[in-house]
């Protein structure tokens, strides 16, 4: 790898240009949403913690929520020259990290995050090219704008490229 590894923290967003790579660590119930314009090779990544900013009082951090974080990321990418109409998405995370035999919505944060991300992307007309979501394990992801590869790493599992 010739580029720099750009890190995205929890409830954070950032962008990168090829040959740089963008990564976020420790996606449990959180969802990593990678947006990509393959013509400019500009990528963005948001680490979504919660599905809906309207359900939380202290919601100044736009990156924390699916409904506001994706919009924020698109704005960041457009300022760098990405074409909004060419954006595609790859998503990972949204795990059920705790084994509860319950359908309590508060315990299904991962599933609700995935549903919220998919609904927001659909609303914006952004096609999801690939996903690795659900299950019961955490993930670290790396997005490579040069190739469009989204590398998924999980403890005790094979690395996967989607």
From TrEMBL:
It catalyses: L-glutaminyl-[protein] + H2O = L-glutamyl-[protein] + NH4(+). InterPro entries: CheD-like_sf (IPR038592), Chemorcpt_Glu_NH3ase_CheD (IPR005659), Cytotoxic_necrot_fac-like_cat (IPR011324). Transmembrane segments: none annotated. Its EC number is 3.5.1.44. The keyword Transcription does not apply. Keywords: Chemotaxis, Hydrolase. CDD domains: CheD (cd16352). It comes from the Bacteria. SUPFAM superfamilies: CNF1/YfiH-like putative cysteine hydrolases. The keyword Cell division does not apply. HAMAP family: CheD. Belongs to the CheD family. Probably deamidates glutamine residues to glutamate on methyl-accepting chemotaxis receptors (MCPs), playing an important role in chemotaxis. This is Probable chemoreceptor glutamine deamidase CheD. It comes from Jutongia huaianensis. The lineage of its organism: Bacteria, Bacillati, Bacillota, Clostridia, Lachnospirales. The gene is cheD.
């Amino acid at each position: 790898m010739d580029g720099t590894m750009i890190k995205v923290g929890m409830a954070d967003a950032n962008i990168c240009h090829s040959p740089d790579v963008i990564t976020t660590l420790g996606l449990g119930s959180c969802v990593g949403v990678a947006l990509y314009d393959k013509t400019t090779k500009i990528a963005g990544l948001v680490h979504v913690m919660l599905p809906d900013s309207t359900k939380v009082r202290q919601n100044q951090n736009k990156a924390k929520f699916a409904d506001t974080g994706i919009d924020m990321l698109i704005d960041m990418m457009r300022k760098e020259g990405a074409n909004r109409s060419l954006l595609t998405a790859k998503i990972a995370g949204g795990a059920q990290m705790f084994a509860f035999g319950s359908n309590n919505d508060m315990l299904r944060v991962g599933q609700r995050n995935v549903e919220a991300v998919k609904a927001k992307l659909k609303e914006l007309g952004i096609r999801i090219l690939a996903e690795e979501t659900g299950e019961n394990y955490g993930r670290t992801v790396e997005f490579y704008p040069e190739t469009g590869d989204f590398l998924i790493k999980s403890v005790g599992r094979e690395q996967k490229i989607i």
